[in-house]
Amino acid sequence: MKKGFILLASLMLLVIAGAPLFANGGTDAATDEEITILFMPGIADPFYYMMEKGVRAKGEELGINIVVAEFPKSWGPEAQVPILEATVARGGVDMVLIAPTSVDALITPLKKLYDQGIEIITVDTYLGDGDYSKSSEYSFPLSYIGSDNEKGGREIAEELAKLIGEQGKVYVNTTNPDVSSVAGRVKGFKEGIAKYPNIELVGVDFNLDVQQKATDQTLAALQKDPDIAGIFATNVFSSQGAYQAVVNAGLTGAVKIATWDATVDMIAALKKGEVDLVLAQKPYEIGYLAVEWGYKFLTDGTEVPKAVIPGFEYFTQANVDDPAKDEFIYK
Ligand code: T6T
């Protein structure tokens, strides 16, 4: 209540001074109890469940309303947009934190919400090229809060190159070409691997975020090129699917595997020596920060940085038992 009063007083001053209140013009001053932030994940997976925890924790700390949309059961705009629109239609949403499941297909549905006065922050994935600081059809979100995927892809390339003695064939299993996160990982990986003249990238498969498809594709790749030395799998279902293919083919140890996303399954696989490297993003922190910035913007119009990038953690067989790293496992 006290905060509400201070807020009201500062808003009155702003109004007297003739200053615009909020960039989107449609968001009215609100007390904490009246603020509602909606979290719209990409798919039902451990990464977004961790992000939900961060979103809820910060929401609780601030005493605002957090609405978590139903988690889509498959990846893509066809699954995500109807859930988003139905949830927003129930009313009262001031801001949407969303992982857009496509760089272009989500522009129109999100712009529609923005034009109704709902603020948008994209988490984990972005629209267009993610540069919200320049004027474009997709620059209306306040911010992108998520990983630097290209950097991660380049780093993984270097680590995998080391693991295979800087020579041999490598293969990538990923989800979709039009998703900023995984596309960035593949781009970075290709750039990183291009520095090694004796490493050849023999294929990139798209599994559409279906684990079984990742297993089948990786098995097929191993059959086509039995001398594949290293594999990079770019997210939860790609990693869980690809490493299973290597286990099924009896190639554990012979094929080095670098994976992305620290699920309980992947950490267990690392402990068993079935994978060699696991990159952990910071989904809890992404969710937490998104609510923190969103709240600041909604309450006093604080300018949100156009990009907020938490770092990564790497799990290897050497550090996987370190208790200090435990918090980075997606549980
Ligand atoms: O890797 C994450 C996320 O960063 C990506 O955008 C989609 O896949 C995950 O949710 C993991 O499954």
Q: What is the average per-residue confidence, as pLDDT, rounded to a whole number? A: 92
Tell me the strand order in the biggest sheet.
Answer: 2-1-3-4-5-11
| Rg over alpha carbons | 21 Å
Class computed from helices, strands and strand pairing: alpha/beta
CATH superfamily descriptor of the largest domain: Response regulator
Q: Order of SSEs, N→C?
A: HEHEHEHEEHEHEHEHEHEHEE
Bound molecules: alpha-D-tagatopyranose
Give a verbal description of the structure:
- The chain is α/β, with parallel strands linked by helices.
- It folds into two domains: 22-146 and 283-311, Rossmann fold, CATH 3.40.50.2300; 149-280, Response regulator (Rossmann fold, 3-Layer(aba) Sandwich).
- Helix content is 41%, strand content 17%.
- It contains ten helices and twelve strands.
- The chain has helices spanning 2-16, 46-62, 77-89, 107-115, 149-163, 180-193, 211-224, 236-248, 264-271, 283-300, and strands spanning 36-40, 65-68, 95-98, 119-123, 143-145, 168-174, 199-206, 228-233, 256-260, 277-280, 307-308, 313-316.
- It has a six-stranded parallel beta sheet with strand order 2-1-3-4-5-11, sandwiched between helices.
- Helix 2 runs parallel beside helix 10 and helix 7 packs across helix 8.
- The longest helix is centred in the last third of the chain and has 18 residues, at 283-300.
- The protein is elongated.
- The two termini are 36 Å apart.
- Bound molecules: alpha-D-tagatopyranose.
- Residues 42, 45, 47-48, 124-125, 181-182, 235-237, 261, 281 line the site of alpha-D-tagatopyranose.
- The site of alpha-D-tagatopyranose has 13 residues, from helix 2, helix 6 and helix 8.
